[in-house]
Amino acid sequence: MLIVRFERDGRRAYGDLDGDVVHEFEGAPFGVVHRTGKAWPLAQLRLLAPVEAPRVFGVGLNYVAHIAESGSATPTTPLLFMKPSTAVIGPGDPIVYPREAGLVHFEAELAVVIGRGGRRIAPADALDHVLGYTLANDVSERIIQKTEMDQGALLVGKGYDGFCPLGPVIATGLDPADIRIGARVNGAERQSSSTADLLFSVRDLVAYLSGAMTLLPGDVIITGTPSGVGPIVPGDVVEIFGDGIGVLSNPVVAEPA
């Protein structure tokens, strides 16, 4: 199933995408799903970020090839950070290049959407708590990020408004062990890899996070980026692609003076 969150005539709802038609749901998809009987052509809808105001857990240095290209030591536990809910935008929404930014990078990532909450979830049970998978762009201001990380912190460099595009759909039933994922900037491929290169798997991440905190329906875990990250500037268009999920496209615009 391909789950979407959409807006039509000022009203927001969830539904499932079947070809070019979206069948509306009663309520959110975190539980038993029922269709309302209403259906809309996709072309008449504005797709939104597939989860409303989620908690977003990020993972650094989680692709083996990316660790090698960065020259960093291999983590022994997941390197975690959070992005505020105000960083989340949807398909087609602009990534705003902050006034004070000096170097902004794109990062293609597989995003895990939690469907059933829990605490101390065993790795063997982890995927039972996953609703599905979407795409994320973990946009990062590198100069601020380095300054923060040199002092043992990380927030603003990854937390600007619009620095977490998500979408276009939540795809259920995928095997997260080997999903091809990548990025294009202005049509040129910049990243291409597979989740088979993850250091810590989706099962590992769900188990590790839930060992410390209760995961909630609608939480999002962005699982790290493969090698090939690079800069973006106003005027660029960034596309994140993933097999079975589609393409998440966002333009980059300058923040007004």
TrEMBL record:
GO molecular function, one term: acetylpyruvate hydrolase activity
Keyword presence, Metal-binding: yes
Domain Fumarylacetoacetase-like C-terminal, chain residue ranges per copy: 56-253
Pfam families linked to this entry: FAA_hydrolase, Rv2993c-like_N
Alphabetized UniProt keyword annotations: Hydrolase, Metal-binding
One GO BP: carboxylic acid metabolic process
InterPro entries (UniProt xref): Fumarylacetoacetase-like_C, Fumarylacetoacetase_C_sf, Rv2993c-like_N
Ranges for domain Rv2993c-like N-terminal: 1-50
PANTHER family membership: ACYLPYRUVASE, ACYLPYRUVASE FAHD1, MITOCHONDRIAL
Similarity comment: family membership: Belongs to the FAH family.
Protein name: FAA hydrolase family protein
Record organism: Aquibium carbonis
